[in-house]
Automatic annotation (TrEMBL):
Keyword Zinc-finger: no
SMART domains reported in the protein's UniProt record: PostSET, SET
Domain SET per the UniProt entry, residue ranges: 36-186
Source organism of this protein record: Quercus suber
Full protein name: Histone-lysine n-methyltransferase
Keyword annotations of the record: Methyltransferase, S-adenosyl-L-methionine, Transferase
Domain annotation Post-SET: ranges: 200-216
Lineage: Eukaryota, Viridiplantae, Streptophyta, Embryophyta, Tracheophyta
GO process annotations (BP): methylation
GO MF annotation terms: double-stranded DNA binding; histone methyltransferase activity
One Pfam family matching this protein: SET
Length: 216
């Protein structure tokens, strides 16, 4: 048995190592590892993709985005890596950079020092990211869609630092067996530039009715 998250929130707080409960606690929903048989397969236009052999109910945690934690300013030395996930929870919470606010305001316990640090974060963009280029899990192969069946959720369990939140993918709908799993990568159009300073464009092949035709 586990709790389901019906809609995305700014941040979800789960029990952590300082809590007296055990791993069966209902408030450790996203910490229980993979519960569904996920399969990586090859597509015609989008490269690798992921689907489940099982029915995934709406609101269920599917998998965490796993990789190497990096500081974003280290990425200048990472070339040709398409598996970077910005931990942009603070920016999302404040609607910065075109990111859509999630549904609920949260109060994150913090000191005045932490507040000043977070104000600085909001101005400079995500300080940390997850790099799944060399080390990762099945989440790195999940494709973008303009009408996804997963949503991204920031989860805090062992600490309250939104810069280092865990990134977990939850089911937005009931997902039938063998249906491709997708989430919205969240790029703004014309937001990605190459080393030459020119705007890069990448077509979107999700094929949905409201496809934006470009990933970025």
């Amino acid at each position: 048995m586990f709790l389901r998250l019906v809609e995305p929130r700014d941040v979800v707080f789960e029990c952590g190592p300082r809590c007296g409960c055990g791993p069966s606690c209902l408030n450790r929903t996203s910490q229980r590892g993979l519960k569904y048989q996920l399969e990586v397969y090859r597509t015609k236009d989008k490269g690798w993709a992921v689907r489940s052999r099982d029915l995934i109910p709406s609101g269920a945690p599917v998998c965490e985005y796993i990789g190497i934690l990096r500081k974003s300013d280290e990425l200048d030395n990472v070339s040709g890596n398409d598996y970077i996930f910005d931990i942009d929870c603070w920016q999302t919470m404040n609607g910065i950079g075109g990111r859509e606010r999630r549904l609920r305001d949260v109060s994150i316990p913090s000191s005045n020092h932490a507040k000043e640090r977070n104000d600085h974060i909001s101005e400079t963009g995500p300080e940390f990211c997850i790099d799944a280029g060399l080390y990762g899990n099945v989440a790195r192969f999940i494709n973008h869609s303009c009408e996804p069946n997963l949503f991204v959720q920031c989860v805090l369990s062992s600490h309250h630092d939104v810069r280092l939140a865990r990134v977990v993918l939850f089911a937005a709908d009931n997902i039938l067996p063998m249906q491709e799993l997708t989430y919205d990568y969240g790029y703004e159009l014309d937001s990605v530039t190459g080393p030459d300073g020119k705007i890069k464009e990448l077509p979107c092949y999700c094929g949905t009715a409201d496809c934006r035709k470009r990933l970025y």
